[in-house]
Specification:
By secondary structure, the chain is an all-beta fold. It has 4 domains: 70 residues, no CATH class; 84 residues, Sandwich (Immunoglobulin-like); 152 residues, Galactose-binding domain-like (Jelly Rolls), CATH 2.60.120; 136 residues, no CATH class. 1% of the residues lie in helices and 52% in strands. The protein contains 1 helix and 35 strands. Strands 15, 17, 18, 20, 23 and 25 form a 6-stranded antiparallel β-sheet that branches. Strand 33 and strand 34 form a beta hairpin.
């Protein structure tokens, strides 16, 4: 207890703490009057195990009093992971870089990375391991990150990833279960329209949601569509979806109907899966689209009619085999070419364009497998892809090139437009690098989604020198 007789009254008193352990942090009341008490709290979470002295000083008008307290800090706080890569849920391919950054006041910190329980690398603090994922079978794997500080405190975390180096098939449908929406609430992967906007419905075939078309009152149309770029080498392209419907009482298919159909990129009808008044029970529709390999086709779901005429769709899939990404043909007519075909709503380049204006430049970075091809003519379009090693093949689960240390990368930008994040796929058809490390040629196709949820930008790039 501090009194006026010993310190002075009534001015406030100053409380000061000092310690030879500079990692200590203090909390408490630093100004008080005689007769008052205060509690001081010490935070030693940034300290390693150590011993020292803590000095508390109270200073008043006439004099000051100090007390010294022997202090022992026992470090029982595990190391902290600042970052680790790849993230949980990532697709890993090729020669990948795994890393972890661990911090702890008790240096050094021993860090290790293992794959499916098998050690892959060990070090201190920031650890980076170059790992050839081609030694693993395609499928799920566990990458574990572990750390131990000098006091023996342990920390660990894991990323559950999918290794995919030789994909046999791929489902081209995005958000075929209608479970995912954009931040605005719009459906990921689907373009919608009509006087009666499609909405998500809890009346699902599987999962939590289906797509409902024409569910509002009144007369009109409701449309939802998605574009698919069927790989040029695919010999199988199996389209499947589940639908059900209702029709206003007393109507016929002449005025009230539901439809599922496939159209060309230019809007010509290719196949009709259904044009009828569908039953209330779920019904599967299928079609073989292998004849359209190399082409962009559109699946269009629609309903027309009055109140009570509605269509529900769910579990849309288009499984193609062998796997691939589109068709490089638009880039092989001659010269250096960047071809872009963006779905309506794509931020970077909605619509189609063939870019041939040069001069052109190209760079290859062997340590990361990144290739950049750029038109130096305004508006300066650029395509960056990453695949390590740079060889023919498919890169599923591509991230933005700057974040693609563990797999494929894609970043197409120009005209002042680019993505903060990307997701997508790439396919390298050919690449040639001379003995000096100079890129001589590359042909690749890609699909890119800005921010990982915007409509797809498709395209190809060809460069030769």
């Amino acid at each position: 207890m501090i009194t006026a007789a010993t310190i002075g009254y009534p001015q406030p008193l100053n409380v000061m703490i000092s310690a030879d352990q500079y990692c200590l942090r203090y909390q408490g009341t630093w100004s008080l009057y005689a007769g008052q008490t205060t509690t001081l709290t010490l935070d030693a979470s940034q300290c390693g195990s150590s011993s020292g002295t803590l000095t508390v000083t109270v200073a008043g008008l006439y004099t000051s009093h100090s007390v010294s307290i022997p202090l022992t800090v026992i470090d029982d706080t595990p190391p902290q992971f600042y970052s680790s890569s790849p993230p949980d849920g990532a697709i890993v391919s090729g020669i990948a870089t795994f890393s972890s950054f661990v911090n702890d006041p008790s240096n050094p910190v021993l860090s290790s990375i293992s794959v499916d329980g098998v050690p892959a690398g060990q070090g201190s603090g920031y650890l980076q391991v170059i790992y050839d994922s081609r030694q693993l079978p395609d499928g799920p794997h566990i990458i574990s990150f572990d750390a131990a500080d000098g006091a023996g405190n342990l920390a660990s975390q894991a990323s559950y990833v999918t290794v995919l180096n030789s994909p046999a098939s791929h489902d081209l449908a995005l958000n075929g279960g209608f479970e995912n929406v954009q931040p605005s609430g719009s459906l990921v992967g689907w373009t919608t329209g009509g006087s009666k906007s499609p909405v998500r419905s809890p009346s699902a075939h599987s999962g939590a949601w289906a797509l409902g078309l024409g569910t509002q009152s009144g007369s009109g149309s409701s449309v939802a569509s998605q574009l698919f770029w069927i790989p040029v080498q695919s010999t199988s392209a199996a389209l499947s979806l589940w639908v059900r419907g209702t029709a206003a009482a007393g109507t016929t298919v002449t005025t009230d109907w539901q439809e599922a159909a496939v159209y060309s990129r230019s809007g010509s009808l290719l196949q009709t899966l259904a044009h009828q008044q569908l039953p209330l029970t779920w019904t599967q529709l299928t079609a073989d689209l292998a004849a359209y390999a190399g082409q962009v086709v559109e699946l269009r779901l629609s309903t027309q009619g009055g109140t009570g005429t509605s269509l529900w769709a769910d579990d849309v899939g288009l499984l193609v085999a062998p796997d691939g990404v589109g068709n490089p043909a638009p880039c092989l007519a001659g010269g250096n070419v960047l071809y872009l075909d963006g779905t309506t709503g794509d931020y970077v380049h909605p619509g189609t364009e063939t870019i041939t204006a040069g001069p052109w430049s190209a760079f290859f970075y062997p340590s990361t497998g990144v290739v950049q091809v750029r038109s130096e003519a305004s508006p300066y379009w650029s395509a960056q892809i990453a695949r390590r090693p740079l060889e023919s093949g498919i890169g599923e689960g591509a991230a933005r090139v700057s974040n693609s240390s563990y797999g494929a990368g894609i970043d197409v930008n120009g005209n002042g437009r680019g993505c903060n994040q990307t997701s997508g796929r790439i396919q390298v058809f050919e690449a040639t690098v001379d003995s000096g490390g100079t890129l001589r040629s590359v042909t690749a196709t890609f699909e890119q989604s800005c921010e990982t949820w915007m409509p797809l930008l498709r395209g190809c790039v060809h460069f030769q020198q």
